Amino acid sequence: MPSTPNYLELVKFIIEPFLEEPASLRLDIERCKENERLWVRVAFDDADKGKVYGRGGRNLQAIRTTLEMAAASAGRSLYLEVYAAENEGEQRRTRRSNGNFEGTERRPSNRRPPAPRQLNN
C-alpha cells in the first residue's frame, strides 16, 4: 500500500508562498473512510485571493491538480474548497475541478438587454 501524504502540510507548503500573511491561512481536513475521499478546506485573507487564484484561476487549478494527484497516488480522491477568512464570515465562490461552482447561487441580473437598433437606409 502506498504511503499516505500529510495533506495539511502539503497544502500549507503549496499555498503559503502566495500569502502576504501566512499566519492567516486556516486549514481543515475531513476524511471519509468508506469511499477514501478527503475534503480539504482552506481560508485566507481576502487581500491574498488574487495571488492564490491567479489569472483566470490558473494558480488555484494547478494547486487542485497537484493535490488531487498526490491523493490519487495514495488511492484516494481529494476535493479542495476555498472559504473566506474567519473574520469575513461568508463563503466565497470556488470552482471544483469538474467546473461546477460551489457555495454561490446565480442571481438574475437587473440589467436589461439593449433596445434593438433601427438601421438607416
Automatic annotation (TrEMBL):
GO molecular-function term, one example from the UniProt record: RNA binding
Superkingdom per UniProt: Bacteria
Pro residues compositional bias, start-end: 111-121
Region (Disordered): 87-121
UniProt keyword Cytoplasm, yes or no: yes
InterPro entries documented for this protein: KhpA
Statement: the UniProt record of this protein carries the keyword Transit peptide: no
Keywords in alphabetical order: Cytoplasm, RNA-binding
Protein name in UniProt: KH domain-containing protein
Organism annotation: Microcystis aeruginosa BLCC-F108
Organism classification: Bacteria, Bacillati, Cyanobacteriota, Cyanophyceae, Oscillatoriophycideae
